[in-house]
């Protein structure tokens, strides 16, 4: 049963992508649908990073000892200023590493508070 569900969902995903990307099919989404779909990328990324930053141990952790929060704030500022994805990723990871190893070495990352 699970394998059938996986195959069906794979077909649904493939067909939904293929209908919009195949050059021979004259199906083009309207301006309203394109505008609606433009919000899906930021929404999915927010769902991915927010729990990592604010709840690294399945518990809300918002204070200045949270290196995830510092890394996310820095990444947001760098992305806003430079608009360079690679530089933002590498620099925010470096800041997180520095915070983790030298600035806040005594903070247990799995048990906040």
Automatic annotation (TrEMBL):
It holds the Pfam family AzlD. The chain crosses the membrane at residues 6-24, 36-55, 85-104. Keywords: Membrane, Transmembrane, Transmembrane helix. InterPro entries: Brnchd-chn_aa_trnsp_AzlD. This is Branched-chain amino acid transport protein (AzlD). The lineage of its organism: Bacteria, Pseudomonadati, Pseudomonadota, Gammaproteobacteria, Vibrionales.
